[in-house]
Amino acid sequence: MADRILVTRSSMPPFEEYMEEIRPLWESHWITNMGEKHAALEEALKAYLGTEEICLFSNGHLALELLLEALEIRGEVITTPFTFASTTWAILRAGCTPVFCDIDPVRFTLDPAKLEALITERTAAILPVHVYGNLCDTEAIDAIAEKHGLRVIYDAAHAFGVEKDGRGAGTFGDAAMFSFHATKVFHTIEGGAVCFRDPSYADRLFRIKNFGIQENETYSVGGNAKMNEFQAAMGLCNLRHLEEEIDKRKQVFELYGELLSGVPGLRVPRVPEGIRPNYAYYPVVFDPETFGEDRDSVAARLNAEGIFPRKYFWPCTNSFAFLKNIKEQPGVPLAESLDPALFDPSKTPVAERISSRVLTIPIYAGLSAENVRRIAGIILRK
Ligand code: T4K
User: Fold this and answer.
1) 106 C-alpha to center of ligand 1: Å?
2) For residue 309, how far is its CA from the centre of ligand 1 (angstroms)?
3) Mutate which of 64, 87, 181, 312 to test ligand 1's pocket (most atoms within 8 Å of Cβ)?
4) Ligand 1 centre from 69 Cα, in Å?
5) Which residues contact 222 (CB under 8 A, 6 or more apart)?
6) What is the pLDDT of residues 92-110, one digit of tens each?
7) Cα–Cα distance between 133 and 136 in angstroms, integer?
8) How far is the CA of 231 from the centre of ligand 1 (A)?
9) Cα gap 70→205, rounded to integer Å
C-alpha cells in the first residue's frame, strides 16, 4: 500500500550526493576495514558529538554487546526493562545478569531513587537507556555509580544529537552507545558507535571488532563488527543534512503538541529546560480511565486508516514469557548465576504501566502537516 504511514521513514540524502561520496571507492577499491570514509566519519562525529574518543561499529547492538565484553563486565548489570529488546539481550549475551530497576514516570528512564537498593557486591555496572532520546538523570546516576565504584554505560541508541546544557549525550558515564540504524534520526543504513572517556578503551574496542588483531600483528580473541565504507559514506552525507532533518521533525513534534496537549487522559512529550532534543520519537501515553479508550484500541483504529504507529516499548524486556525458561535458551552463553526470578515485571510496576499504555505515533522529516492533523484527528475521533 503506497499511502501507508509508518512510524518512521528513513531519511535519504540527495542521490547524487551519495554517488559522489562513494565514487572514490571505485578508484581505491578499499571498501571496508577502516578506510578513508570511516576515518572521515569518526572525525566528523567527534566534532558533532563533542567527544574525544569514538569507535564505529557495524550496528548498535553489537557495539553494546562488545563494549560489555571489551570492558570485561562480569556479574550483575542494573538496567531498565523499558527499552528495545537489544539492551537486555546485549547484557545476557555478554554473559552478564540483568537486574531490572523501575523507571521514572516522567522521563521513562531508569529511576535513580530505586537504583541504590539494587546494588550488591555482585553489581558490576549500570546500564540505563536514554529512551526516546529522553536523557536519564545522569547527575544522580553517575553520582551513585561513583559512590559505589561502578561503571556506567549508557544505551544512547535514541539520543544522537541530544544535549543537556550544551553537553552531548555521548559524554555522560564511562561510555555511551549510539545506534545509526535506518530508523534513527542520524543513520548509516546499519551502524553504531561507542563514545568513551578513558583512551585505554580505544585499543580494546578496536580489537574486539576486528578479530582481536593488534597493531603488531599479535592476536587476542575478537569478533567482526566493523563499519564498512558504504555505511560511513551514508553517514557523511546524512550528517550534512542533520540540522534540517531535526528541524523538520521539530515542526511535526510541535504540531502534534498543539493538537494533542491538554486532552484529558493523553500524555504527550515535552522538552525539558536545558535540553536540545532530537525529536526521535513521539510517545503518547493513553490513560483509558480518563481518555475513555485504551492504547490498543486507538492503534487498531489508526491501522484501519493505513497508519501504523508502534507500541515501543511493549512488552517490557523483563516480561517475555520465554524468559521463564531462560536456562534452556540454545546457543547463548548465559551467566551461571542467572535466576529466572529476575524476569518479574511486577517488580517494575511503573515500567509495566507505561509499557501497556504507550503508543509511538509517526514522526519523520517528510511527514506533512496535513497527515499530522489527520493522525491527531483520528486519535481524538474528530
Ligand atoms: N538499544 C535500543 C534502545 C534500541 O532501540 C536499539 C534499536 C538498539 C539498542 C540496537 O541498535 P541497532 O543494532 O538496531 O543499531 C527498529 C530498529 O531496527 C532498531 O534499530 C530500533 N532500536 C528499534 C526501536 O526499532 P523494528 O523491528 O521496530 O523495525 P522495523 O523494521 O519494523 O522498522 C520500523 C519502521 O521504520 C518501519 O515501519 C518503516 C521504517 N523503516 C524501516 C526500515 C528497516 C524505514 O523507513 N526504512 C528501513 O530501511 O526495530
Assistant:
1) 24
2) 13
3) 181
4) 24
5) 207, 208, 209, 210, 211, 212, 213
6) 999 999 999 999 999 999 9
7) 9
8) 16
9) 6
What pLDDT, on a 0 to 100 scale, did the predictor assign at position 334? 79
- The atom number, within ligand 1, closest to the CA of 191 reads 15
Kindly report the protein residue whose alpha carbon is nearest to atom 31 of ligand 1.
183
Bridge partners (DSSP) listed for residue 246: none
* pTM, rounded to two decimals: 0.97
Low-confidence ranges of the chain (pLDDT < 70): 1-2
In contact, 143 and 168? CB cutoff 8 Å: no
The span from the CA of 351 to the CA of 181, in Å, is: 25
Domains along the chain? 7-240 (3.40.640.10), 242-379 (3.90.1150.10)
Return the sign of the alpha-carbon dihedral for residues 184, 80, 130, 134.
positive
Q: What are 36-39's contacts with CB under 8 Å, separation 24+?
A: 36/229, 37/229, 37/232, 37/233, 37/236, 38/227, 38/228, 38/229, 38/232
- 288: cell is 483509558
- Residue 180 alpha carbon, nearest atom of ligand 1: 15
Residue closest via CA to ligand 1's atom 49 equals: 182
Q: What is the Cα–Cα distance from 202 to 246, expressed in whole angstroms?
A: 30
For ligand 1, mutation pick of 91, 129, 183, 194 (most atoms within 8 Å of CB) = 183
- Which triple of cell numbers denotes residue 228? 564498512
**Which amino acid appears at position 13 of this protein?**
P
> Using a 6 Å CB cutoff, which residues line ligand 1?
6-10, 59-61, 83-84, 86-87, 129, 155, 157-158, 179, 181-183, 192, 312
Cell triple for residue 71? 570492558
- For ligand 1, what atom is nearest to the CA of residue 64? 9
Q: Residue 125's beta-bridge partner residues?
A: 77, 151
**Cα gap 149→151, rounded to integer Å:** 7
Dihedral of CA atoms 252, 253, 254, 260 in degrees, nearest 10, equals 100
Q: Strands across the sheet with 163-164, in order?
A: 167-168, 163-164, 275-276
The per-residue pLDDT for range 206-245, each reduced to its tens digit, is 999 999 998 777 899 999 999 999 999 999 999 999 999 9
